[in-house]
Write a structure and sequence with these properties.
With 165 residues, the chain is an alpha+beta fold. It has 5 helices and 9 strands; from the N terminus they run ααβββββββααββα.
Length: 165
């Protein structure tokens, strides 16, 4: 009975994602093969966060568009990447439970969106110590990019199954 009351409240009085996942999230930033980089994160609505040392996490506001991440370390070129938002799973609770004002609350507060849990920023050394180091770095980056491409294709296939014939 108690769960039913909570679900009813989600559906009619506010956004489910606002209640379940909130308007902030932890974002983990990793700089492979570089420990101790400092990173600045900026969203499209001028929100700004600072991570003093990688790898590490920072709490950011959701719902403000792509998150741009710029990382720096003295011996490496500046690394830049962007993390796009996706729809938070709890948002679908509003649709399943009848929608109402909750969908609008979630969209307005940013709770309807979610950044990836982890953002990876690759930073190339300003000088290679050896050709083996360069080959190893490029191989690791290529492996990462291939894994990311596979994961993206699998997600796309799950979200867009083929139509029955």
């Amino acid at each position: 009975m108690r769960i039913f009351a909570i679900l009813l409240a989600c559906a009619f009085f506010s956004g489910c994602a606002s209640i379940v996942s909130g308007t902030q999230q932890s974002l983990f930033v990793d700089t492979p093969m570089v420990d101790g980089a400092t990173c600045k994160l900026n969203d499209s609505k001028n929100g700004s966060w600072y991570l003093p040392s990688t790898p590490g996490s920072v709490s950011v506001l959701k719902g403000n568009g792509p998150m741009n991440v710029v990382c720096e370390e003295a011996s490496y070129n500046t690394g830049i990447t962007s993390g796009d938002e996706d729809t938070a799973g709890a948002t679908f609770g509003n649709i399943l439970l009848g929608g109402g004002i909750g969908i609008f609350v979630d969209a307005a507060t940013g709770a309807a969106q979610k950044y990836p849990d982890k953002v990876v920023v690759w930073m190339k050394p300003k000088e290679w110590k050896s050709s083996e180091e360069e080959v190893g770095w490029n191989a690791e980056k290529r492996k990462f990019e291939e894994a990311e491409a596979r994961a993206k294709a699998e997600k796309e296939a799950r979200n867009n199954p083929p139509l029955p014939q």
